[in-house]
Amino acid sequence: MDCIFCKIASGEIPSSMVYEDEKVAAFRDLSPVAPQHILVVPKKHYDSLEDIPMDEMDIISDIHRAIRKIAEQEGFNEDGYRIINNCGKNGGQEVPHIHYHLLAGKKLTKLVVD
Ligand code: 5GP
Ligand code: ZN
Which residues form a coiled coil (predicted)? Predict the structure, then answer.
């Protein structure tokens, strides 16, 4: 499958990888919108949250577990962070491989929806 995040997660395309385990990979966003902007993805391809079979939803726990580890590793666990998942067209998702935006490094403004 010709998917950019599959290629990054498998190491086929080089990226600034910050974390990797058996099921999850995390790398820096190409166009950061915060001092720290990391994308956390499952290594297995799913288009979006809506594409994950109910009996495979444990991957969401795996992603959140990885986020905790990354926050500790990168040192923003104490001051906090924001996680965003854009799901589908109306959610503003542009890359069709499920990913969580992990944003940190400053006090973010109240969530704005436009
Ligand atoms: P979405 O709008 O789908 O939630 O977010 C996609 C994100 O992927 C955007 O923040 C965009 O900057 C980032 N992005 C798109 N292409 C690449 C790429 O090739 N490499 C990396 N590291 N980030 C990318
Ligand atoms: Zn993919």
Answer: none
Q: Which protein residue has the closest C-alpha to ligand 1 atom 20?
A: 30
Backbone angles phi, psi at 92, to 5 degrees: 85, 20
Q: Where are the chain's structural domains?
A: 4-104
- What is the value of pTM for the model shown? 0.97
Q: Which of 16, 100, 27 is nearest to 62 (CA)?
A: 100
Most ligand 1 atoms within 8 A of CB, residue of 90, 94, 98 to mutate: 94
Residue 34, SS3 per DSSP: coil
Ligand 1 pocket test, candidate residues 2, 86, 95, most atoms within 8 A of CB: 95
The pLDDT tens digits of the residues spanning 10-44 come to 999 998 999 999 999 999 999 999 999 999 999 99
